[in-house]
Write a structure and sequence with these properties.
Layout: H1 4-18, H2 25-41, H3 46-60, H4 63-66, H5 71-86, E1 102-107, H6 114-127, E2 132-137, H7 144-154, E3 159-160, H8 168-182, E4 186-191, H9 199-212, E5 216-222, H10 227-240, E6 244-248, H11 257-266, E7 270-274, E8 282-284, H12 287-294, H13 300-310, H14 313-325, H15 330-342, H16 346-351, H17 366-377, H18 381-385, H19 392-402, H20 406-426
Parallel strand pairs: 1-4, 1-5, 2-3, 2-4, 5-6, 6-7
Antiparallel strand pairs: 7-8
């Protein structure tokens, strides 16, 4: 995940402070020097680092730290507040036009994930009850229009394109007319990108902007390009007057400096961040939550929101009743695992928990979860509902069907029975315990 190395370094710096009862100005100066190096190594813009260290240093040598009984906590609090400030202070939402359709124009360099994220963002609005339309205006990249149709179909979102048309401005205008006629209240214009910024590309984007007057112009920025992403953002902003940024590929092993720099340098907020390859892997960008993640303080609010989206409330209530009656089956376990997977990888979930930085050395074996799935899928419906009938010959068949060993089957069945006993104890066995409960798999 982006910021992982920066998060590790900052937490190591703060651990040194926690051993000190009081901080001197020399302690603060040494700490600021280490934070400065950590930020520069994360590819944060030098201009941003310089301003950040100046503000934090001034606050850290003031009374709120020097006279505090817990100076290390105060320093962390100040760093957290200033990180939040440079990333935008608060969430910046998409502006919705008072007169439909709202028109959102996505721009950026080729390879930044513009086409995919055009669909991803449209998908979030579809989930909120909007009727989005995707408009294919990339007339140069051969596979771009096809790609937009594919992702649109996967999300059940209509795509407007004009095969053979070589005028992107015309396509954009016709796409908006199509939306008005068909009741689409939000339109996403997927524009052409290049491998590098050139005059022809910018002229075309300016022409599209002038003709359709979009409500939002969002720049897709690849988080893995580091400092170059900020330079790209500056250039696009000068020409188009952006309204926001979409930060893509934040799930990669990146230094993350772009997110800490782009708002400060351009004055334009990050509105969304892509967190994975799936079309559902996108989140609104919350500066305060990101600052909290960077400092290893977790992101409980995002974790709760993911859980609310991923877990079916009716199914959860049914599971609870099964726990009370001790009738939880392997089919139920499989369903729970699917819902957990919808929240993302286990390592990402751990990282959102408070103290997540302390779990950085915990190895989550995602393959083991896949193995468990394969084993349960290789069982008959009767075996899933009543595992006690699984004898040695059935175990051999299940092992062969799942590509595992009989020992793996035995281990899963033993763990499942132990879990059921634990559930029975925790629910009091008689169903008197109140409140929801969910199997911790």
């Amino acid at each position: 995940m982006a910021f992982s190395s920066l998060s590790d370094k900052l937490n190591d710096i703060f651990k040194k402070l926690k051993g000190k009862g009081k901080l001197s100005e020399a302690d603060v100066k040494a700490t600021m020097r280490e934070i400065k190096l950590a930020l520069l190594e994360a590819d944060v813009s030098f201009k941003v680092v310089k301003e950040f260290i100046k503000i934090v240093s001034e606050r850290c040598v003031g009374n709120e730290v020097m006279e505090s009984l817990t100076p290390a906590q105060q320093v962390i609090k100040i760093v957290n507040e200033e990180l939040t400030e440079i990333m935008g202070k608060s969430q910046s939402k998409i502006q919705i036009s008072s007169k439909p359709p709202t028109v959102i124009m996505l721009v950026g360099l080729q390879g930044a994930g513009k086409t995919t994220h055009c669909a991803k963002i449209a998908g979030t609005f579809k989930n909120d009850g909007k009727r989005p339309l995707l408009v294919a205006c990339d007339i140069y990249r051969p596979a771009a229009i096809k790609q937009l149709h594919v992702v649109g179909e996967q999300l059940n979102i209509p795509v407007f394109s004009m095969e053979g048309e070589k005028n992107a401005v015309k396509i954009a205008k016709m796409g908006i007319d199509h939306a008005k006629k068909n009741g689409n209240d939000i339109v996403f214009i997927d524009t052409a990108g290049r491998l590098h910024i050139d005059e022809d590309m910018m002229d075309e984007l300016v022409n599209i902007k002038n003709e359709i007057n979009p409500t939002e112009i969002l720049l897709t920025v690849d988080a893995m390009t580091g400092q170059d992403a900020v330079n790209v953002a500056e250039t696009f902003n000068e020409k188009l007057d952006l309204t926001g940024v979409v930060l893509t590929k934040t799930d990669g092993d990146t230094r993350g400096g772009a997110a800490l720099s782009v708002k400060f340098v351009t004055g334009k907020p990050i509105k969304f961040m892509g967190t994975g390859e799936k079309l559902t892997d996108i989140e609104p960008f919350f500066p305060d939550r990101m600052a909290s993640r960077i400092l290893g303080m977790g992101d409980v609010l995002t974790l709760i929101e993911k859980a609310q989206k991923s877990f079916d409330e009716k199914q959860a209530a049914e599971f609870e009743q099964k726990f009370r009656k001790n009738s939880f089956t392997l089919t139920d376990l499989l369903n729970q695992m699917h819902q957990m997977k919808n929240m993302g990888s286990m390592s990402d979930i751990l990282g959102m928990m408070p103290g997540g930085a302390n779990l950085k050395n915990v190895q989550v074996d995602e393959k083991a979860l896949g193995k468990t799935e394969a084993i349960i899928y290789s069982m008959t419906p009767e075996e899933r509902e009543n595992p006690s009938i699984i004898n040695s010959s059935r175990k051999k068949r299940i092992a062969q069907g799942s590509g595992t060993k009989v020992e793996d089957i035995n281990r899963l069945l033993k763990q499942f029975e132990q879990s059921k006993k634990l559930m029975k104890m925790m629910t009091g066995g008689a169903g008197k315990r109140r409140g929801g409960f969910r199997l911790p798999f």
